[in-house]
Amino acid sequence: MTIYNAKIYTMDNTRSVIERGYISFDRQSGLILKVQSGTPESVCADDIDANGAAVYPGFIDAHTHLGLTTNGVGIESEDFNEESEPDSSKLRIIDAVNPFDTSFEKARRAGITAAVISPGSMNPVAGDIIAVSTAGRRIDKMLLKRVGIKFALGENPKMTYMNRDEAPASRMAVAAIIREALAKARRYRSDKAQAEDGADSPEFDMGSEALLPLLDRSIKAHFHCHRADDIFTALRISREFELDSVLIHCTDGYLIADELAAEGVPAVVGPIICDPCKPELANITPANAGLLAAAGIKTAICTDHSETPIEYLPLTVGIAIKHGMSFEQALESVTINAAYAAGIDDICGSLEAGKRADLTVFSSDPFSVYSSPDMVFINGVLLT
To answer: Residue 136: exposed, middle, or buried by beta-carbon count in 10 A (0-12, 13-18, 19+)?
Structure first.
């Protein structure tokens, strides 16, 4: 299939915008074949004339709890926090995601073609994180990649266990529990390596097994952190264990933007549409994402669904533009930067040959409250 007579925002390494071009993709494989300026040599009945509309990569929400809770149901449907132990690294988030949650359809209708689904932030070590397509009925087939492990710093884990008179009751204990889990996994990795040389194999440990890809840097450490000191704790632990890390929320990030730029760590900012409902959100501002991007930090924007419903991701981006973010930076924040933060930029996030044909077509400003996509393709299939 080919979409032609389109303005194409490639979001590739050149960030080129093709003023009048076409994009071809294979509907069987779901992969992009060609992105070119000009007009195709021939068109067929199934091809689409965009009539000058803009084609963007499908939007990506880089931090959500999509499918882990159902609006209006309550505790019966909430599956994103396992509060029975502060280290729940053995948990697999795929076992909790309900793809029949209506929020998946709402996401698609808003042009969101992929989402990162994370456990909640009640535990210092919360479990694994996955990136999924927003289209499908079976989560195993919607899975794009296992992308990370969730760690939480600050008030949420502290207050969860303090109320039970258990550790952690302080920021020191939160960090210590994370270090302990990582140190245990590192020792476990060493013992397994020695077993290959003839030593006894260590007793199987599901939690340590889950953390091994993190220590090998094949997946990323996603640190829930709002306050500046918590952000620095995330960076400190990442340096100690040589982790490839991502700063989630990064609420105080703009206060320390120069320090973060020097670290080269991406930030996923959000929710922007929210109430400053706890002390560590005291410095929250909708200008944060723009200030971080201006400092040279790879910045993504998220809804933290269901804190902000996922279908309001484009509106959230519009608010960031209103408060100083450029249009290009804003587009990066829900396309290539979101894909980079998640570690799926080899799969999606830009319009390039070989990547998934996840794309949206808009005839108006995609981040306006008045706009909806004209068309949404996921893996080469037209859904809206």
So the answer is: middle
CA dihedral 277, 282, 286, 290 (to 10 degrees): -140
Is the Cβ–Cβ distance between 89 and 127 less than 8 Å? yes
CB 233 within 8 A of CB 171: yes
- Pair of tokens at residue 109: 């209708």
Peptide bond before residue 271 is cis, with ω within 30 degrees of 0: yes
Each residue's pLDDT expressed in tens, for the chain with a length of 384 residues: 999 999 999 999 999 999 999 999 999 999 999 999 999 999 999 999 999 999 999 999 999 999 998 766 667 678 989 999 999 999 999 999 999 999 999 999 999 999 999 999 999 999 999 999 999 999 999 999 999 999 999 999 999 998 888 899 999 999 999 999 999 999 999 999 999 888 999 999 999 999 999 999 999 999 999 999 999 999 999 999 999 999 999 999 999 999 999 999 999 999 999 999 999 999 999 999 999 999 999 999 999 999 999 999 999 999 999 999 999 999 999 999 999 999 999 999 999 999 999 999 999 999 999 999 999 999 999 997
Fold of 59-348: TIM Barrel (3.20.20)
Q: Strand 299-301 and strand 359-362: pairing?
A: unpaired
**Domain residues of the chain, as ranges?**
1-58+349-384, 59-348
Domain 1-58+349-384 has CATH 2.30.40.10: yes
User: What tokens does 359 get?
Assistant: 């794309």
> Taking Cα atoms as reference points, which of 269, 379, 254 lies closest to residue 332?
269
108 phi/psi in degrees, rounded to 5:
-60, -45
**Number of other residues whose CB lies within 10 A of the CB of residue 71:** 12
First to last CA, the chain: 16
In the chain, alpha helices (H): 102-109, 139-142, 155-162, 171-195, 206-215, 228-241, 257-263, 288-294, 313-322, 327-333, 336-342
